[in-house]
Specification:
The chain is an alpha+beta fold. It is built from 4 helices and 11 strands. The relative contact order is 0.09.
């Protein structure tokens, strides 16, 4: 047993200098490239530089690295409006325009937000989404909906971009004709009203 202990104690551990040279050069370069590839393939690390839409409603998002991400319109969609880049550059949103039999112009029935490689669609109460914005540096969106004419059926929603979770909603009191009685709501709804 003493011989075994002596033999174990005689094993020489490499010095720091030797360990460093074993993982330098090509090995370090390889590890660096693997890390860069993983970061590039991680959609949550993607930042966006701009977004635009053509007349058919096709949206084109450009990342800060110059990569282009095309988003095709929905089947009945006829256009896009109010494209906004989040303050943190990690999300892009817009409203999708759809034909409406009661008007001579299309109306915004859906809010779309592209972030982390996913496209989220928000419909709220089903009424047109006239005003929207990013909140909390792009972590949330808030929007206001109401009828096409007359300001009836007003409804507000605040949703998390990451998973679409409903964070808050507010529907002002209305009279029996559907007109708004009070305008007092949470601060985020008053901010949306200022955007009109």
């Amino acid at each position: 047993m003493d011989q075994l202990l002596l033999r174990a104690m005689s094993i020489r551990l490499p010095e720091k200098r030797e360990v460093a040279s074993a993982v330098s050069g090509p090995a370090v370069a390889f590890l660096f490239l693997v890390g860069q590839a993983l970061a590039a393939s991680d959609p949550s690390a993607t930042r966006y530089r701009s977004a635009s839409a053509d007349s058919t409603g096709r949206v084109e998002i450009v990342t800060t690295t110059g990569r282009t991400i095309p988003i095709a319109p929905a089947k009945e969609q006829v256009g896009v409006d109010k494209i906004i880049l989040a303050p943190n550059s990690r999300a892009v949103g817009w409203v999708a325009m759809y034909p409406n039999v009661a008007t001579s112009y299309p109306i915004p029935l859906e809010l779309l937000v592209y972030a982390d490689g996913k496209l989220r669609r928000f419909h709220g109460s089903g009424l047109p989404i006239w005003v929207w914005r990013f909140l909390n540096d792009g972590a949330q969106v808030a929007f206001e909906q109401e009828t096409v004419h007359g300001g009836m059926g007003v409804h507000y929603e605040r949703r998390r971009v990451r998973d679409g979770h409903l964070v808050a909603e507010f529907t002002p009191e209305a009279d029996r004709d559907g007109g708004r009685i009070s305008s007092e709501g949470p601060a985020w709804t008053r901010d949306l009203d200022q955007d009109r």
